[in-house]
Amino acid sequence: LYLQEVFMKARGKILTLMILSSSAVTTTAFINKIIKIKATKNNSLDQQKSHFFHWRLGDIYYERVGTGKPVLLIHDLNAASSSYEWNKLIPLLAENYTVYAIDLLGCGHSEKINTTYTNYLYVQLITDFIKSEIGHRTSIIATGESASIPIMACSNEPSIFEQIMLINPLDLSEYCKIPGKRARLYKKIIDFPVIGTLLYHIAVSRDFIESEAKKHIFYNQYCITPEWIDAYYEAAHLGVSPKSIYASQRCNYTKCNINNALKKINHSISLIGGAEIDNITERLEKYKDLNPAIETAFIPETKYLPQLENSGALNELIKTYF
User: Fold this and answer.
1) CA-angle at 258, arms to 254 and 253, nearest 5°
2) CA 5 to CA 12: how far, in whole Å?
3) What pLDDT was estimated at residue 19?
4) CA separation for the pair 193, 105 (Å, rounded)
């Protein structure tokens, strides 16, 4: 009788705990849904000139404007980035080039599948996109972590590329990072359906995006407009599984050692730095140590995204190098 009484009390506590846990999960899931709806309700990312490349892993959104030699624009690789990054530069480039601005798989309006994103995946995407949608030798401009994509793609298939321009590429040592035990554990946590999604929403909150913009992205604080924040906030919440690219990128699955590829490439490579980034000159000099033919230039009073802070100066450099 004593054991039966203990069991009945324990069962009551277990049932209470299960009810509370179930309620918490339901509440968290509801919060996640509300966050997603609020983030995407304004439709801040323009789709008026949209095209879709039906790739084997998902539909890839891109914009195509202008006439002339093809130039492919690849935005930075993170969950909040998209081809919106180029919206001030595209009209300028379109006067002289056929401009293709792509949303990478897992970003912007492209399909966001639940998978582990890798550098090799993006190399295949860019290679297939050029062959299928452009059909000519193509010059590429890429930002930040995405700089490794054209470098590796050009190393594998040099015949489909012309010039390469990299805007504020990471330090070479950053590309060499690999997923560690903590990174793999963190990715598993983010992959959880409810709690992982909540943690992701915290990591890409509107306040966090604005804070990063003030600290690292823009030198001119007047460039941080509500429209810009809305566009990046929306991009981070569109699609079925926007957190998958975040987990893959933060946990170094998208990284790739590009040193040997840089030594191997004979194409024209130019590096553009935001002059107000700390140690940017030393960072870009490391690239020239591997490939002395690489050229560098810096845009004053800009940081991470000179294409948004001073698109005119960047356009002049592109015309010079391309």
Assistant:
1) 15
2) 11
3) 43
4) 20
Distance CA 60, CA 24 (A): 36
* pLDDT level of residue 32 (50, 70, 90 thresholds): low
pLDDT for 107-147, tens place per residue? 999 999 999 999 999 999 999 999 999 999 999 999 999 99
pLDDT at 194: 85
pLDDT classification of 73: cutoffs 50, 70, 90: very high
Distances (CA, A) of 210 to 38, 167, 205, 213, 276: 17, 21, 9, 5, 19
Q: Are 315 and 89 in contact (CB under 8 A)?
A: yes
309 contacts 217 by C-beta, under 8 angstroms: no
φ/ψ (deg, to 5) at 102: -105, 145
Neighbours of 215 (CB within 10 A): 9
Residue with tokens 């949303």: 103
Helix ranges (H only) for 114-221 are: 119-129, 148-156, 172-175, 181-191, 195-203, 206-212
Q: How far apart are CA 233 and CA 117, in angstroms?
A: 21
Confirm if 311 and 92 have CB atoms less than 8 A apart.
yes
| Interval 257-263 mean pLDDT | 96
58 DSSP β-pair partners? 55
